[in-house]
Amino acid sequence: MINEKKVAVMTRMAAYEAGNGKKDRAVCSFFRSDFVGFQLLKTWIAVTAAFCILAGIWLLYRLDEITAIFYAMDVDALLELGKDALAAYGILCGGYLLTTWLAAHVVYAKAHKASAAFDRMLTEIDGSEEEEE
């Protein structure tokens, strides 16, 4: 005899596995701190690369002003330019890293919750098999 409750649970499990199940299992295979740290590392690398590209474009756009500063040997202007660049990098990197930290914690919490619900469904099926016998 077919247990309709068991079939319903198995259908929900199959739908989960076909949808977000693979992603959630991949996320939950890490410890929370490892997952968040890896996401932060990826973000830091991407932000640094993007900042270097944008800074290079800005330097090319302002090349005449930069060369005038170099020829004038204006050390104060160079230091001010360097401070501005570091401040911009710090603000950009800090903002993206904070956003990534928050998003990674939310993603991990949702994946862990969904994975725990899947595990409860597995135990529910195991319990229903024992009741049938």
- Tally the helices: 4
**In what range is the share of β-strand residues?**
under 5%
Low-confidence stretches: none
Q: Sheet bearing the most strands, described?
A: none
Structural class category: mainly alpha
Q: Would you count the extended β strands for me?
A: 0
Tell the overall outline: rod-shaped
State the distance separating the first and last CA atoms: 12 Å
Mean pLDDT: 87
Provide the succession of SSEs: HHHH
Helix content: over 70%
Q: If you compute it from the alpha carbons, what radius of gyration comes out, rounded to the nearest whole angstrom?
A: 26 Å
Topology:
Elements lengths: L3 H25 L3 H30 L1 H10 L2 H58 L1
Helix pairs in contact: 1-4, 2-4
Describe this structure in words.
It contains 4 helices and no strands. It is an all-alpha fold and 133 residues long. α1 runs antiparallel to α4 and α2 runs antiparallel to α4. The mean pLDDT is 87.
